[in-house]
Structures are given as structure tokens and as C-alpha cells.
Design brief:
It is a single chain. Helix 11 crosses helix 12. The N terminus is likely disordered. This protein is an alpha+beta fold and about 775 residues long. Among the domains are: about 150 residues, no CATH class; about 280 residues, Rossmann fold (3-Layer(aba) Sandwich). It has 19 helices and 42 strands. The strands form 10 sheets. It has an 8-stranded mixed β-sheet, with helices on both faces. Strands 2, 3, 4, 5 and 6 form a 5-stranded antiparallel β-sheet that branches. Strands 11, 12, 13, 14 and 15 form a 5-stranded antiparallel β-sheet that branches.
């Protein structure tokens, strides 16, 4: 048996033995580990946001509760759906003497694939007799299934060989779905045996691997089931399959009669005046609508200009709605969500401009809006314009991101908007249509339309309290816990997390989460790890924010204090990196001044976009870090820039200030961290993910390697962004804990499977000791 398998077996035995066995033996609580983090059950999908935690049936008789956890025993994530009957939960609330909550009416789980979430995109049938959902097969294809409440059975609605990218459903005989275009697989198969292939206008990763080529393409075909007949919907004018890209997949909504679908389509030719009629938030914004021809059948539609349309499923006739383009392509903060009124006469849509091509565009909002459109009169009204940001990156007062829109099922003159507020706080609001036809926001608190139901289900949690399913009844007012899926945590020592406030040198107010070791002692100085990329004070996420590279509670259990930092809101300007670094510098200074942090033992961890922030911090030397780690991210480097297509390089050009050619190269030499790796005095752990991971992370690794500086490169050969596979999470989060313990505490894990790791790191430590970095440290450190 390999060392890896032995280690995995040992971990599984540890998980199985603790904590109930330990509790029964009266032993002390155990420290929180990466295995505990993986085992934790979450409601919904907190990392990829592909699944809602609670979905109520249309008739109000049932709730489906979605949970996610990792299973080390099979090395797979597991998705579970639990169906509760409202009347049973209501009876439990009405009789407080009943000690035990009612179990779910029906529960089933899926752990069929190495990556998660396995179950996504649940939709109730119109008669509430069941629901459709996507589940990933053993082969890795998302397949559409129907869960039948009457028979408690699950049956497939689409072939296993197809990759379903989106769907909507009314009943088992009326549904619509999109399938990843088979043309891509045919082309990839042909390329694998071809003497040469055309690489023009393609990402380098799609040329290196067929699997990666499929991963980055989004072209899908539209299919429908009407009655007993399954049809591939073809464009009435061209007789070609209808091409649906990712925004159209998000917006997919089947009409009440099951004969039409609302979606968003690539505009074949973008009018020249759209560039000025539909401007970005700021004149200096590098992202804007580009006029000219577009190919709707392009494999990649990520950056296409799109417009809402209704498609007749029987004829393939396309009716473009009398609206402008979606706001996303003009760099507004929003995504497409849609719904039909029950009578099919109105549609509600988000993130779309009104048609400013009319005679007097000055009368219309300059921003995209959440819109209600009357399909008979063609009258479109802006219900709520999108929130924006200030030019310095701060959110406007009252900022909220629209994350859903729906008609009240009983009132076509009332719509519900779902929001996410800064700090990942969820909320909702309602609008009513007034007598003059305008839409007016309802006054007073409005949680959701669920306030009209006899009971409400919600998830109660905080940064220190694991999530529980709670039911609430209005009359009499009473709440009770229905399900605590993580009761085993009572035997684990979690430590404490407090919300930490500070200000940077510019006076900007900042917020983060300070994870403290168990039995934290005031006045004692601890090694400090800065974790980047955000913080939510209202959710229990032990890793800190994402399960890739981050391991906040695990580090705290090992004796660290960890500050999970909420990102500075500035994006896509030259100040993005410096703003983040100013936050880290001010946080370190304050924690040192507070007597919490040891100034000689400070580390930092970056993931995704905050890899750039971490490298910015290491190359500016505002704070001396004794250890650093970056995983699967953006570094604003020259090599990453060259590996992207022209459409995808605008982001880096906005941050650096110019393309890296001619005079613009001076901007890159001045502002890109990769041109300043000579200033790095910190041992750096570089982790790539997937087949393209080694190329993406090669530049920061190679620049330090060539300078004979301590750097270690690890490649996870596969994985999602962020990671969902248990073994990959164990490797990623475990490496962070080991790396920080080694460099900040001088400690090594006794696990013999890690002997080679520590031999490698000891050589790096010797290399570090050969350098004289003291003169490069900031004064006062």
C-alpha cells in the first residue's frame, strides 16, 4: 500500500473515531483539523454558489434543503437533498413539548464524481409533485433528473452522454435544457489526430489539452421536450442549432405554457452607436461595448454582447425583446436572472439597459436595470437600476447586488428581488405595480414572500456558530432547531473569531476576522498569518473564506492568530494592488501594537486574484513576511498576459495601465510584481491547479528559482476553482498549515509520509540562511 493510501486510511479512521467516541470516553476536546474542515456539512454551496440552501415548492407544502460535505472515505464531495413537509414542521413548532424534530419526508444523496457540487440547479415542477435537478455522473457529465415525491424515485430526463449546462421545467412532459455543443467534441477528436491545428484567437490552454479545451468553452445547443416529443431547437432563419452561451444559460426561463423560452443571445452585429448609448460606469473604464460583427456559433461566448430574446420552441422563431444589451458587457456589476408572470403576459429581467435607441434616450436610465416588460404592449419599465461603485472602488451608498428576480406566484403586479449586500449578506425586497403603472418599492421590512407562509425555514449561523436549520412560526412567535448536521463539533476545540476593525494610512475603514487559538492569552504574542480575499462575519467558514490554500481555524488550532482580510473594493485600476497592500500593512502594525502579533513571525496566503495582492506585498517590502503562499491565481505578470487572448487581456491592461509593448512596457516594469521579484525576501510556496496550473504559476516560481531564492512548486494535477475534492483540499490546506508551521514556528509534522517534503524545505531554509535580507527589511521590523 502506498504512503498516500496509508495516510488517507489513517485520516478516515481518525474521522470515524472522533468525536463521539472521544466524548463518550470523557476525553478533552480535540484540535480542529483539515479533515474536520472537509467533513463539515454546509447548507447550499457556499464556495461555488451553484445551489441554494432552501427551495420552497410552489404550493407551499414542501421545502427541499440542500447540503454539501466532503467524504474522505471515498474521496468525493457529497450532495444531499432533504424534503420536509411543512405541516409536520408546523405541528412540531405548535407543540413545544415535542422533544424531537420531524425527520425529512425524503432524503437522498449523490457522491458520484470527484468534484462538486454534485447536485445543482434545482427547479420545482409547477404542481409541486417533484423537482428537476442536475447531477454529475461518474463520467463527469451533468445530467438532468426528475425527483418524484409521490413514488420517492429519481429518474433521468436526459441521456447520460450529454453535458447539460442549464434547464427549466414545468412538468415531466414540458421542459427545456441546453447541452454543451457536440461540435466541440468532434473538433477536439479531429484535432487529436490532425497533423496541424489552427491556434489563432485561442487560449494557450485549449491548445495543450483536449480536456482543457472543453473546460473553457461554453457553446451550447437548445433542446426542448413538448408533450412526449424531444426536439433540438433550430433557428427558423438558418435551420442551425440555436447557440446559447453562458449568460443565456443563466437566463433560461420556460414560459407557463411550455412553448416558449426566455434567454439571452449573442447579438450577430453590434451597432456602432451602442458604444456611446450604453457606456461603462466610468469613461476611463477599459471594458466597454465593442461595435462590429460577432459569431453566435463561436465556441467561447464569455465576452459577447448579448440581448434578451424569446424563442418559440416549436418553430425556432426568435423575438428580440425591445431592450438594450445586457449590462455585463459594459462592465456593470450584474448578472442575468429572469422570470415569467403566471399568465405569461409579462417577463421580469435583470441587468439590462432599456432601449436607448428610441427618439429621446435622455428620458431613460443610463444604467442597466431590473426591468418588467409587458409582452403585449412592449412597454418596459426600469424597476431598479443596478448599484455601482465610485471611481475609487468604494461601493455607492446603499449598494446591493441583484441575485434573483421572480413574480409573486399569486400576484402578477408584485415582484421579488433577491440581493447580496457587502459582506455577503443576503436579503430581498418587493415592488408593487401602482395604479399609474409604475413600480413602487414596498415599505417596511420584507424578508421574502415566505413571510406569508405558516412557517419559515432559515439557516442560523455566525462566524463562531456552525450552521443549523431553524423553523419559525409567526403565531405564536416561536423558533426551533430542526436539524444540526454538525453536532459532532461539540467535541472539537474551535477557538474564537472576532470581527477586527482598523484603518489604513489613507483613513479607509477596514474589516476582517481575527481567528484566535483556543485558550488565547491576552498579552502573548502569536505568529500571525494574513489570509486574503474577503471575510463574512455572518457565516461559519472554518477555512476563512475559500477551501483552497486557506486554513484559518486549522492554523489557529496550531497556535497562530489568523486575520482574514476583506478586500479593498478598488478594482481594475492602478491603485488595486497598492490599496490591498496598504490594508495588510496597517493590519500588521495594529496587531503588533495591540500586543497580539509577533512582528518577526508573519505570513501571508493568496488565492485566485489575491495571488497578485500577495506578490505585490512581497515586492513592495512594506511588511516583512517570513513565509508566503499563492495558489491557482492571477499574478498580473507578463507570461500570464501573453497566454490570454486579446479579449481577456483588458483586465491586466486596466490594472497596469497599458499593454506591455512600446512605451507601455515601462508601466509593466514599474507596476507588475513579476518585474520586481529581486526584492522578494520571503520563502514562497507556489501551488498550481490542473493541467494548466504549472504554466499559470511558472513565472513567480521561475523568477525566484533563477535568483537562487527559497521557493517550492507544487502541482495539483486536477481540481476546481475553488477546490472541492477532499484529497485535493487536504493537500492544499494541509500544505499551508505545514508551510507556516515550518517557517514561522520551526515545527514539522511527524507524519512519515511527509519526510520528503521536509527534506526539501530544510534545503530551502539553508538557502534562506545564506542570504542576508536584513538590510531589505522595513524599518521597525
Amino acid at each position: 500500500m502506498s504512503l498516500f493510501k496509508k495516510a488517507m486510511l489513517l485520516l478516515c479512521l481518525m474521522v470515524l473515531l472522533r468525536p463521539d467516541t472521544l466524548r463518550s470516553q470523557g476525553q478533552t476536546k480535540m484540535p480542529f483539523t483539515v479533515a474536520d474542515d472537509i467533513r463539515l456539512t454546509y447548507f447550499g454551496d457556499p464556495f461555488l454558489d451553484k445551489a441554494d440552501p432552501i427551495i420552497r415548492s410552489g404550493d407551499g407544502r414542501y421545502f427541499v434543503v440542500h447540503t454539501e460535505r466532503g467524504r474522505l472515505d471515498v474521496n468525493r464531495p457529497e450532495s444531499s437533498l432533504s424534503v420536509y413537509k411543512v405541516d409536520e414542521v408546523q405541528a412540531f413548532l405548535s407543540h413545544p413539548e415535542r422533544p424531537v424534530a420531524p425527520p425529512p419526508f425524503w432524503t437522498f444523496s449523490r457522491a458520484t464524481y470527484k468534484d462538486g457540487p454534485v447536485i445543482t440547479k434545482l427547479r420545482w415542477l409547477r404542481d409541486s409533485s417533484g423537482f428537476g435537478f442536475l447531477a454529475t455522473s461518474e463520467a463527469g457529465h451533468d445530467q438532468l433528473f426528475l425527483a418524484n415525491l409521490r413514488t420517492k424515485t429519481v429518474s433521468p430526463l436526459t441521456p447520460e452522454r450529454e453535458e447539460v449546462t442549464s434547464f427549466d421545467i414545468r412538468d415531466r412532459d414540458h421542459f427545456v435544457y441546453t447541452v454543451l455543443s457536440p461540435v466541440m467534441k468532434e473538433k477536439i477528436t479531429a484535432e487529436s489526430s490532425a497533423v496541424s491545428v489552427v491556434g489563432t484567437d485561442r487560449r494557450i490552454f485549449s491548445l495543450l489539452s483536449p480536456a482543457m479545451a472543453l473546460k473553457w468553452h461554453d457553446l451550447s445547443e437548445l433542446w426542448a421536450v413538448i408533450g412526449k416529443k424531444r426536439i433540438r431547437v433550430e433557428d427558423e432563419s438558418t435551420h442551425k442549432p440555436l447557440a446559447i452561451h453562458w449568460r443565456g444559460q443563466m437566463a433560461l426561463a420556460l414560459s407557463p405554457d411550455g412553448l416558449s423560452v426566455l434567454t439571452a443571445l449573442t447579438v450577430p452585429t453590434v451597432p456602432r452607436n451602442w458604444e456611446t448609448l450604453y457606456p461603462p460606469p466610468f469613461p476611463s473604464d477599459a471594458h466597454h461595448i465593442n461595435p462590429g460583427p460577432q459569431d453566435p456559433d463561436n465556441f467561447d461566448g464569455w465576452f459577447d454582447v448579448s440581448r434578451y430574446a424569446v424563442i418559440n420552441l416549436q418553430t425556432g422563431a426568435i423575438q428580440s425583446l425591445p431592450l438594450g444589451p445586457l449590462g455585463y458587457e459594459a462592465d456593470w456589476i450584474g448578472l442575468p436572472y429572469t422570470d415569467w408572470s403566471r399568465d405569461g403576459t409579462r417577463v421580469a429581467l435583470t441587468d439590462t439597459f432599456l432601449d436607448r435607441g428610441v427618439s429621446d434616450p435622455d428620458d431613460l436610465h443610463l444604467r442597466p436595470c431590473a426591468v418588467v416588460l409587458d409582452l403585449k404592449t412592449k412597454e418596459a419599465q426600469c424597476v431598479e437600476p443596478v448599484s455601482g461603485s465610485k471611481i475609487n472602488g468604494d461601493h455607492e451608498e446603499g449598494f446591493r447586488l441583484v441575485t434573483g428576480i421572480e413574480f409573486d406566484p399569486h400576484d402578477r403586479d408584485r415582484i421579488i428581488l433577491k440581493y447580496t449586500y457587502p459582506g455577503d449578506v443576503a436579503g430581498s425586497g418587493a415592488y408593487m405595480r401602482s395604479a399609474d403603472g409604475s413600480w413602487i418599492a414596498e415599505k417596511g421590512p420584507h424578508a421574502s414572500r415566505l413571510t406569508d407562509l405558516p412557517i419559515r425555514l432559515s439557516i442560523h449561523q455566525s462566524v463562531n456558530d456552525p450552521p443549523k436549520l431553524v423553523a419559525t412560526i409567526n403565531t405564536p412567535q416561536r423558533s426551533r432547531v430542526i436539524w444540526d448536521p454538525n453536532s459532532w463539533l461539540e467535541s472539537v476545540e474551535l477557538g474564537d473569531v472576532t470581527v477586527y476593525h482598523w484603518k489604513d494610512a489613507n483613513g479607509r475603514a477596514l474589516l476582517g476576522g481575527l481567528y484566535k487559538p483556543p485558550h488565547f492569552s491576552s498579552g502573548k504574542r502569536y505568529p500571525l498569518v494574513i489570509q486574503t480575499h474577503g471575510f463574512s462575519p455572518d457565516t461559519f467558514v472554518p477555512s476563512g473564506i475559500y477551501p483552497t490554500g486557506f486554513a484559518a481555524r486549522e492554523l489557529a488550532a496550531a497556535g497562530f492568530v489568523v486575520l482574514q482580510v476583506r478586500d479593498c473594493p478598488i478594482r481594475r485600476t492602478r491603485e488595486e494592488g497598492p490599496c490591498q497592500v496598504a490594508a495588510y500593512e496597517a493590519a500588521v502594525k495594529q496587531l503588533v501594537a495591540d500586543g497580539v502579533a509577533d512582528p518577526d513571525r508573519i505570513g501571508i496566503v493568496g488565492f485566485s486574484r489575491t495571488c497578485y495582492y500577495t506578490l505585490e506585498a512581497l515586492t513592495t517590502n512594506t511588511v516583512h513576511f517570513e513565509a508566503a503562499s499563492i495558489t491557482d491565481g492571477v499574478d498580473m505578470g507578463y507570461m500570464q498576459y501573453l497566454m490570454e487572448t486579446k479579449a481577456q487581456t483588458a483586465d491586466a491592461e486596466s490594472v497596469i495601465g497599458a499593454p506591455p509593448f512600446g512605451a507601455g512596457l515601462n508601466n509593466w516594469i514599474e507596476r507588475s510584481p513579476e518585474f520586481h521579484m529581486d526584492k522578494v525576501t520571503t520563502p514562497l510556496l507556489v501551488v498550481g491547479v490542473g493541467e494548466g496550473g504549472v504554466l499559470s504559476e511558472w513565472e513567480p516560481y521561475a523568477t525566484l528559482l533563477q535568483q537562487n531564492k527559497p521557493v517550492d512548486l507544487i502541482l495539483l494535477k486536477a481540481g476546481t476553482h475553488p477546490l472541492t475534492n477532499p484529497a485535493q483540499r487536504m493537500a492544499s490546506q494541509g500544505s499551508t498549515v505545514d508551510w507556516m508551521r515550518f517557517w514561522l514556528m520551526g515545527e514539522e509534522d511527524a507524519d512519515p509520509a511527509k519526510n520528503d517534503q521536509y527534506k526539501r524545505w530544510r534545503r530551502l531554509r539553508d538557502l534562506q540562511n545564506e542570504h542576508s535580507f536584513e538590510t531589505l527589511r522595513p524599518k521597525g521590523q
